[in-house]
Structure formats: C-alpha cells, structure tokens
Amino acid sequence: MSAESVVKGISLIQFEHVRVYVLEDVPSGETTLIDTAFEENGEELVAVLRNEFGGVDRVILTHGDHGHHGGLPYVMDAFSPTLAAPDNETKLYEAIEYEPDVRYEDGDVLDGNIEVIQVPGHTQGTSALLLRDRDILISGDALDGADRAGLPAGYLLPPPALFNDDHEAAEINLYNLLQYNFETLLVFHGSNVFENPKGKLDDFLVEREWDPRP
C-alpha cells in the first residue's frame, strides 16, 4: 500500500472501506493527518506514514465513527502527534483514551488556515474542514461521492440513512456548506469531486422537499 496524490500537497491512503488524507506543510513545516481509519488499519497506516512522510505532527479527527478514529492509538504511539477533535462529539470521547490538545467548535480556524464547518446529523459533531487558502473542502462524512450508492461519479450525496444518527438533520444541515466557497470536495467514501462541487450540492438540495433558506 502507498499514498496517492490527490492535489499538490494532499495525498490519500485508501483502505477497503474508508480513506484518510495527509496534508503536507500544513501548517508550515508540519504534516497533518485527517482521520485514522479503522483499528485493523492502524499498523498499515503507520507504516505508510513513516515510509512516505516520515511521520505526522498533527491528527485532526472529523467525527466519532470508529472508521475515522480506530487507528488513532497506533498513530499516537508511533509519532506522538498533537490531536484536534470536535468538542461536542460525545461518542468519540466514549471511545478514545486521549484528551485532544485542541477541542474545536463550529467556525474555529485551526493552524494552517483550516476552518471548521460542523454539519450535525451523521453524528452529533460531524465536521467538514475548509482549507481556506486553497478552496478545498474535506467532507468529514457530511457528504459521500455519489458512486458509493451506485450512481455516476462526480456527484455528491449525504451518507445513507442507515449510517446517520438523524438523517433529516444530515441533509438539512448541508445548507451550512453553501455559505462557503470551495472548488474541490474531498470525501472519505466514493469518488472526490473536482468539477463544480458547490453547484452540484446546491442542485441536489434544491430538489429536496424542504428548503430552510430564506
């Protein structure tokens, strides 16, 4: 297994059911890992991080699902990175034994100019991460690539209702994302969207039975 470049300075490591992202030089001179996959992926994740990036300096967890934090103990033991995680994600703190160095909230800007946009519904504290200086949005399971559901790649859907704590909220709160500018949208399940992701999200939401916008 190896990392795959997505755009300059951002790589993904793909496992069977989920991927993680590695941000190089974010913040300057440091390497940031976004999520840690499942526990069973931990050893392999550490090997790829060590071999291809020399380790990581920071881990950001987007939410409390096991497939996004399960490998955390392996990464923490191997590299002793700092840890950032959503403050209001109860299920996460029931599952991990680490106290984050940063407990972030909606609207916070993390080192490296990464803005937190919380989209509750999939879980209580599901958070997307906006790389503000690059107009890149990392979904944090607020959105999947549509091909996860057998539809054409290049489009977006919320996670299946089966995986959401509150599916209606998971859809309604997607409107939060339309307040921001992004030209690339990176997901953890399905294909990433590089062509007009914001417009495609807006097109999806306008077809719903409700629209909370004024």
UniProtKB/TrEMBL annotation:
<dbReference type="GO" id="GO:0016787">
    <property type="term" value="F:hydrolase activity"/>
</dbReference>
<dbReference type="Pfam" id="PF00753">
    <property type="entry name" value="Lactamase_B"/>
</dbReference>
<dbReference type="InterPro" id="IPR050662">
    <property type="entry name" value="Sec-metab_biosynth-thioest"/>
</dbReference>
<dbReference type="InterPro" id="IPR036866">
    <property type="entry name" value="RibonucZ/Hydroxyglut_hydro"/>
</dbReference>
<feature type="domain" description="Metallo-beta-lactamase">
    <location>
        <begin position="17"/>
        <end position="189"/>
    </location>
</feature>
<keyword id="KW-0378">Hydrolase</keyword>
<dbReference type="InterPro" id="IPR001279">
    <property type="entry name" value="Metallo-B-lactamas"/>
</dbReference>
<protein>
    <submittedName>
        <fullName>Zn-dependent hydrolase</fullName>
    </submittedName>
</protein>
